[in-house]
Write a structure and sequence with these properties.
Blueprint: H1 5-20, E1 24-29, E2 33-35, E3 38-40, E4 55-60, E5 70-75, E6 79-86, E7 91-96, E8 102-104, E9 109-117, E10 133-139, H2 141-159, H3 166-178, H4 186-192, H5 197-200, H6 217-240, E11 246-252, H7 263-283, E12 289-290, H8 294-303, H9 305-317, E13 320-321, H10 337-355, E14 361-363, H11 374-380, E15 385-387, E16 403-407, E17 413-417, H12 432-441, E18 450-455, H13 466-475, E19 483-486, H14 489-502, E20 507-509, H15 525-550, H16 560-568, H17 581-611, E21 621-624, E22 631-637, E23 640-648, E24 653-656, E25 668-670, E26 673-675, E27 679-683, E28 689-694, E29 699-700, E30 708-712, E31 734-735, E32 741-747, E33 751-760, E34 763-772, E35 778-786, E36 792-798, E37 805-810, E38 813-818, H18 824-828, E39 832-833, E40 837-841, E41 845-851, E42 856-860, E43 863-870, E44 882-894, H19 902-910, E45 914-917, E46 924-926, E47 929-933, E48 937-943, E49 950-955, E50 962-968, E51 972-978, E52 992-993, E53 998-1005
């Protein structure tokens, strides 16, 4: 009778399963446990499960058991860091989790202690934690090896279905099993196999022998011979059916800095994972492991400096790669360009400090889309390669290459690689199916002979297991499968660069938009607002302090500690809003503290600056402009709002007399209109905006109503509740047209304002529409008291222009968005990231929607949309519940956005002018630093990381180019451009700025 290959494979799996039950030669339970210093019996419930618990036991290995084949098998009831102290006092630590439960023993007598939490790797609580398992097991190593090898053969047969090698693999495994001399004594056999699925289905098993016999010496010898025979057969088949392709394996553990667990748990996860990786390196010289995120190593300096020292030793030995070059693995859609620069600056500097290594690879496997500003920053930060796999998560369209040049907005290029592992993504396994399918999906086989594959349990950490190490060793002799070997990621990319030099690679220009997880642009919007304000608070504080230093004040201290807090909270599951509530308790506290620290530093900087100015005049107030744009004189003072004539020059300190604060004339208001010299705003009956007239051009900016509020109560994605917005969300829309009251609450002379109160279901919306006397924008300050779940709240504005594309601000520039759905790519971009503005313009006129806290935008037809709030229920059931406030604004303008001053108005909305009292000082203007030529935007003016210098960083924001000259005040100089790492930059002109170019200068005293 001839069986099919499928039938033979099924038989192989059944017969292989039998080996598992003879893997242990002997087993004994470990008793004498203590839980927080109190006795606890094996199998007992934890007396306490909140927080970190501590187990301890003194353990003895039976006489006659060889230590090198004994394993301690544990399940303490949760994740643990265990410490095993040998009889001589030496100790090693290991991570204990569901994927790492067997550990070597160091001596006949040893002590075990633990730090244990009642949680599983993905944060799930263990509802009823028990001391489930504690055993010493004498392993039959040959049985263990053969059991794994036969499983890998079966997996290879499944993976290679239809390949000519399949019947040969089946025959080799069948011959191997026939070589075994296997036990059959009834009592021993039934007891040994009682846990098998087939046996567990029996109505009632017979009484089981308590200590069943294992293999005898002859049987063990048959196993060893069978194993070697199968290895030899596989090696022979490899000659006949050589490997197809190459897969570079890198061990890693993707550890989310915070996600389904709070940050304090991450600190423990890092230690557990790192100890595990180090233990594997002791047993395998070939094993290679990578771990990104400078922040993790910095926290080890505090938590476990001895562990960090061991890691650094392995880094210097070449086994451990501290990849990435960034402080953490950040979201790149929402941070400012300066934040992205600081991620690289502080990341690279820290890695160089601890290991002497500057990284060349940006490692961001799990971020939700990538800003087109990144390639330029990576190049300036010393990185020439980029890795992610997230682009493969797009649901509609896919970037057509896995190995390609990624070209940024400015033309800078890095070599990008992504792999498509359909089994476990970036948390890959060392298995035939993972290796073969990853190679099969690699689309640049004609350009490069190798693809990368990172393996190891991740997200919740854990990393590579001992079985993965053994699997790789066995797979070296397998036929037909791709060749898979441990490789340094740096070596993989060096070879890829050689291939890219020899062969033409495709180019992807601009941002990498992820067609998924669009809801992360809005979820937990209150934290997004705090993050925006924290960024701006630090940038402004540094700018003011630097202006003071240029005028003669002492150099200010570095704000790197505060920046590190901001950068930490840019992690790709914190800022996007996809974490549990506890994460956001920490994030709010930390970001609020940074905002206050930044404000305090701003005040101190203003005072130091004022101290450098001459006294003895009729000065009333010092006003500082912390941007590169001239600003209208508009101030929010303790005794009221000021909107006056005149402007404040860029990077200038101006002492004004009280007489200069008189309001600009022409402001008028009623309950249904606001008007000044520049615009006239009319409200519709329902409180939305019916008209915005741009007086200079005479054009109406609104068509179809502006600031129309819509609630979408069917914001219920298929998966990933906090992450996703479905494309059909708008099919069920409720326009919020009712209102509780409309009243004029302020009528000048500096500002006029109308307040509109609305209710929707269980929530309330209060909007204050205000117009300053000298303003070109109408502001809409919004206060929400939200108590409805799974709803998306948006504002939509119809613009009286027709344009195929809208313009969104992004990090260090702008990106165009389609207003149509001509292609599947256009259709998929129904919600996309933008920073401080989105604009819709024809060549002569347009309207911009500005904001101080939001990121989710849409542009369809002539309608601009801004997502204001989402209220998902997973993983935080109360996301955005309660009160929050923010401001957005509408600004009509003549000409295209960059000619109409849109970015400048958005800058003013997000960072108003600064002011303090200057009674008794001379009036005048002091401008210690001038930037002349093409319009540029300020990224930073800060103290240098080394020395007593300052760093000026600007960028071209609109895609233009021209001459640019930097002129510091007398007594200061610059000697040409520097990189974002603050090192001399060769190549670029010192007196010009190219489209979207980021350029920095070191300013030094003469």
């Amino acid at each position: 009778m001839t069986l099919t290959n499928a039938q033979r494979l099924e038989r192989l799996k059944v017969r292989t399963l039998e080996l598992e039950f003879w893997r242990a030669r002997k087993t004994i339970a470990v008793d004498g446990w203590r839980f927080n210093d109190a006795p606890i019996a094996l199998g007992a419930d934890w007396p306490e499960k909140t927080g970190t618990q501590h187990f301890a036991a003194d353990i003895a290995v039976p006489d006659g058991w060889p230590l090198d084949t004994v394993r301690l098998c544990l399940d303490l009831g949760g994740e643990s860091l265990i410490r095993i102290e040998a009889a001589d006092g030496t100790a090693k630590s290991f991570g204990l989790d569901p994927n790492h439960r067997e550990f070597p023993v160091p001596s006949r007598q040893f002590r075990l202690t633990s730090d244990t939490v009642a949680r599983l790797p993905f944060g799930e609580p263990v509802r009823h934690p028990k001391l489930t398992r504690a055993e010493l097991v004498w392993i039959e190593e040959d049985v263990d090896a053969l059991w794994l090898l036969l499983r890998q053969v079966a997996e290879a047969v499944e993976t290679l279905e239809g390949h000519d090698v399949v019947p040969h693999l089946l025959q080799a495994s069948e011959e191997t099993i026939r070589m075994l001399d296997w036990p059959s004594a009834t009592a021993d056999y039934i007891a040994r196999t009682a846990a098998a699925p087939m046996q567990q289905k029996i109505w009632q098993l017979p009484t089981l022998k308590p200590d069943p016999e294992g293999l005898n010496e002859a049987q063990r010898e048959s196993v060893a011979k069978a194993y070697q025979s199968l290895m030899d057969k596989l090696a022979g088949l490899r000659e006949r059916f050589p490997p197809q392709g190459k897969v570079a394996l890198t061990g890693h553990a993707h550890i989310d800095l915070a996600w389904l667990w709070p940050y304090d748990e991450t600190r423990r996860k890092v230690r557990r994972t790192f100890h595990t990786a180090l233990s594997l390196m002791e047993g395998s010289k070939d094993f290679r492991f990578n771990q990104s995120t400078a922040h993790y190593y910095a926290q080890l300096e505090e938590d476990d400096p001895a562990l960090l020292e061991k890691v650094v030793e392995r880094v210097k030995a070449g086994q451990w790669e501290t990849l990435g070059g960034t402080w953490i693995e950040p979201d790149t859609n929402m941070p400012t360009g300066e934040s992205l620069s600081r991620q690289i600056l502080y990341g690279q500097r820290y890695f160089e400090k601890i290991s002497g290594i500057r990284h060349t690879i940006c490692w961001l496997p799990d971020c939700f889309g990538f800003s087109g500003a990144l390639p330029q920053l990576l190049v300036q930060g010393g990185m020439k390669s980029f890795f992610t796999i997230k682009v493969n998560w797009s649901e509609s369209n896919h970037i057509p290459s896995d190995l390609f040049w990624w070209e940024g907005f400015d033309g800078s290029r890095v070599l990008a690689h992504t792999f498509d592992n359909p089994v476990d993504g970036y948390n890959g396994q060392v298995r035939p199916d993972t290796i073969a399918s990853t190679w099969r999906n690699f689309r640049q086989k004609d350009r490069h002979d190798t693809t990368l594959l990172c393996v190891g349990y991740g997200d919740g950490g854990g990393g590579v297991s001992p079985e993965m190490i053994r699997r790789e060793e066995q797979l070296r002799v397998f036929p037909a499968l791709p060749e898979a070997q441990w490789t340094r990621v740096e070596d993989f990319f060096e070879n890829a660069h050689e291939a890219a030099t020899a062969r033409k690679m495709s180019v992807w220009k601009g941002e990498i938009y992820l067609e998924l997880h669009r809801g992360t642009l809005t979820s937990q919007s209150d934290v997004k607002r705090l993050h925006r304000k924290a960024e701006r608070s630090l940038i402004t504080a540094e700018t003011v302090a630097s202006l003071a230093h240029l005028l003669g004040a002492e150099r200010s201290t570095s704000m790197e500690p505060e920046w590190r807090v901001v950068l930490k909270n840019e992690f790709h599951d914190i800022l996007p809003g996809s974490s549990i509530a506890e994460v956001y308790v920490d994030a709010r506290r930390e970001l609020e503290a940074v905002i206050e620290q930044g404000k305090a530093a701003q005040t101190a900087g203003l005072e130091r600056l004022l101290a450098e100015l001459p006294e003895g005049g009729d000065g009333h107030i010092l006003v500082v402009n912390p941007s590169l744009d001239s600003r209208p004189l508009r101030l929010e003072l303790a005794d009221g709002f000021i909107s006056a004539e005149g402007t404040i020059p860029p990077l200038a300190a101006v002492v004004l007399p009280a007489s200069s604060l008189a309001p600009l004339h022409g402001l008028s208001a009623s309950e249904r209109h606001l008007e000044n010299a520049f615009i006239r705003v009319k409200l519709a009956e329902d409180g939305s905006i019916a008209s915005i007239l741009h007086k200079e051009s005479g054009r109406e900016a609104v068509e179809g109503g502006a600031n129309r509020l819509f609630a979408y109560p069917c914001d219920k994605p298929r998966n990933w509740d906090a992450w996703d917005v479905e494309e059909d969300y708008a099919e069920q829309a409720e326009e919020i047209t009712g209102f509780d009251s409309i009243e004029l609450i302020e009528k000048g002379p500096h500002r006029a304002a109308i307040r509109i109160r609305r209710s929707w279901r269980h929530s309330s919306i209060v909007q204050t529409l205000s117009l300053a006397a000298n303003a070109r924008r109408v502001e809409i300050h919004t206060e929400l008291d939200w108590h409805d779940r799974r709803v998306l709240l948006r504002t939509e504005t119809g613009v009286a222009v027709q344009a195929a594309r809208a313009v969104c601000e992004c990090a260090y520039g702008v990106v165009e968005r389609p207003t149509h759905t001509n292609t599947s790519w256009d259709e998929a971009m129904f919600e996309a990231p933008g920073h401080r503005f989105i604009d819709l313009s024809d060549p002569d006129f347009g309207l911009a929607l500005l904001n101080d806290a939001k990121y989710g935008h849409s542009a369809r037809g002539n309608v601009l949309g801004l997502s204001l709030l989402r209220s998902p229920v997973y993983p935080d059931p109360l996301a955005d519940e309660g009160y929050q406030a923010f401001t957005y604004a509408l600004m009509p303008h003549a000409g295209p956005w960059h000619a109409g001053g849109v970015r400048e108005e958005a800058e003013d909305l997000n960072q108003p002018l600064l002011a303090i009292s200057a009674e008794g000082y001379q009036t005048g203007t002091w401008q210690p630093l001038a930037v002349e030529g093409i319009t540029a935007a300020l990224s930073a003016l800060k103290s240098s990381e080394d020395g007593d210098d300052l760093i000026l960083r600007v960028y071209e924001p609109a895609g233009r180019q021209g001459a640019l000259t930097v002129k510091p005040t007398e007594g200061w100089r610059h000697e040409g451009p520097v990189t974002i790492l603050e090192e001399p930059m060769t190549g670029p002109s010192a007196t010009g700025l190219k489209p979207f170019e980021v350029k920095s200068w070191r300013l030094s005293k003469n």
